[in-house]
Write a structure and sequence with these properties.
Number of helices: 5
């Protein structure tokens, strides 16, 4: 149940960011849910491999290369999910930064509700 709520909150974050950012497009709410699922799967499967393979450059850049890895994950989701469009790498980096911030806020609100 908690996983489904987190997916729906991630989909909500994707929809909000697609409305705010001009170069990010999501066709429908169902597409946003599919994007949230795709991002979860890509973060679970592909991201650890990319982090291990790029560990030296990540250490040299003091972790800033992780922004590039996050942008790669977003661009892969753009490639695999029809109806989700990110126009450039810069917008993928901005989207990943804002998505993680918005997700942390929404997930914190979810934790706050359960304690009351």
């Amino acid at each position: 149940m908690k996983f489904i709520l987190r997916l729906l909150l991630s989909a909500l974050a994707v929809v909000i960011l697609s409305k705010v950012l001009p170069n990010i497009e999501v066709d429908s709410y169902l597409t946003a849910v599919i994007v949230a699922i795709a991002l979860s799967l890509l973060n679970f499967i592909v991201r650890p491999i990319m982090v291990i393979l790029t560990l030296p450059i990540t250490i040299i850049t003091f972790g800033l290369f992780l922004l590039v890895i996050n942008a790669c994950i977003i661009m892969l989701a753009d490639y695999f999910v029809p109806g989700f469009t990110v126009n450039s790498w810069l917008w993928a980096i901005i989207f990943s930064l804002l998505l993680s911030c918005l997700q942390s806020i929404l997930f914190t609100l979810l934790k706050e509700d359960k304690k009351s």
